[in-house]
What does this fold into?
Amino acid sequence: MKTGLMAGVLALFLAACTNPPPPPTSSVDITFQHRPPIQVNVANIEVVDRSAPRVTANRIEQLHQQNPASLARRWAEERLRASGASGQMTLIIEEAAVIEKSFPRSTGFSALFKDEVDTRLEGVLAARLEYRQGPHSGSVDVKAEAFKEILSDATLNERDAAYFDLLERLARQFDETLTRDVEANFGDVLVR
It folds into this structure.
């Protein structure tokens, strides 16, 4: 009887010491709708994806609905507004990847008590924005890079959140850099 009572008290104690699992990450989209549109004096805006997706064990962007290439396409859809009668603007996606690098864990008894970085996510988004409008033409290049480290005891939800955080960083850097470069270099085609 005492053994059963002790086992019950021990089970309650252990249950009280554990944390509940985190809620699943929500399916939130990264958008640029909160940013003002960039009016351009062209008739057509096109996105060309030249980032050849390579299926390798450490490339993980194709496992997710949102990835660096989809961020670039969304940027063009939500930030650029064609307001001209002629001319062309093209966003060429040149590189769009998220690479997962794994690190070996420490071994031995002390490793049981360490929470080490075991994964590093490295994201890159490179593109060229070109325009042709009558006698005027121009282009700007942008490359956004971000990384995120993940601890060995991270749950699947925490790993998904790390991927999402990496994409948010890429999106912010891509948007800020490209917006600045367009405003500085595309005076001939911007509608103010």
Observations:
- The chain has one domain: 33-185.
